[in-house]
Design brief:
Blueprint lengths: L6 E9 L4 H14 L3 E6 L3 E3 L11 E10 L3 H14 L16 E7 L4 E2 L4 E2 L8 H10 L12 H11 L4
Antiparallel strand pairs: 1-4, 1-5, 2-4, 3-4, 6-7
Helix pairs in contact: 3-4
The structure holds adenosine-5'-triphosphate (ATP) and calcium ion (CA) (2 copies).
One calcium ion binds next to strand 5.
Length: 166
């Protein structure tokens, strides 16, 4: 049952350092343990080569989760960043898009659009990323994306055909 005032959210997960699967699963466990957060569903994990950032990084394991929370968007971002740090992420020591034990990005917070200094929602780069669209499609293929105005499924097909994948 939903808590009164709870908002549906989608979060992207990624890891390319250490035991990637254990990192993603620990993130799920920690989010589920937070009193203001309920885990609703989780996509399969998918593996892909790192995009951008320093060359020669290990491959990523990525996924997506749907949850429900009574936290505000900034409070939720703080929780996600606490979990990243708890699993060994040291953002201040990393190059941009460098290897990390855990990355948790807020893709959607209900239907809200947020353009704050430290938080942009929907996540501004999600529509360009196969490694986000693929797990997102496992959960919400009909989700409408604000930039392309396509569904997640249509956009995934478009990016796949552009990159020569099926
Ligand atoms: P990208 O955002 O391109 O996926 P990244 O995940 O590697 O890059 P980070 O170093 O993890 O970037 O985060 C940089 C900053 O992005 C964070 O400190 C946070 O304030 C900000 N940020 C803005 N919007 C979001 C969002 N929707 N989800 C998570 N962080 C966000
Ligand atoms: Ca990211
Ligand atoms: Ca991030």
């Amino acid at each position: 049952m939903s808590a009164p005032g709870a908002v549906r959210v989608l979060v992207a997960l990624g890891s390319n350092l250490g035991d990637r699967r254990a990192n993603l699963e620990a993130a799920l466990a920690r989010l589920s343990a937070a009193p203001a957060f309920r885990l609703v569903s989780v996509s399969p994990w998918i593996e892909s080569a790192a995009e951008g950032g320093p060359a020669g990084q290990p491959d990523y394991l990525n996924g997506c989760l749907e949850g429900e929370t009574t936290l505000g968007p900034h409070e939720l971002l703080a929780l996600l960043q606490d979990i990243e740090a708890g699993l060994g992420r040291r953002r201040e020591l990393e190059p941009r898009h460098g290897a990390r034990t855990l990355d948790l990005d807020l893709l959607f917070y209900g239907e809200e659009t947020i353009e704050a200094e430290r938080l942009t929602v929907p996540h501004p780069r999600l529509e360009e990323r196969l490694f986000v669209l693929e797990p997102l499609c496992a959960l919400q293929p009909e989700r409408l994306l604000p930039r392309s105005r396509k569904t997640a499924r249509e956009r995934l097909q478009e990016l796949r055909s552009r990159s020569g994948q099926r």
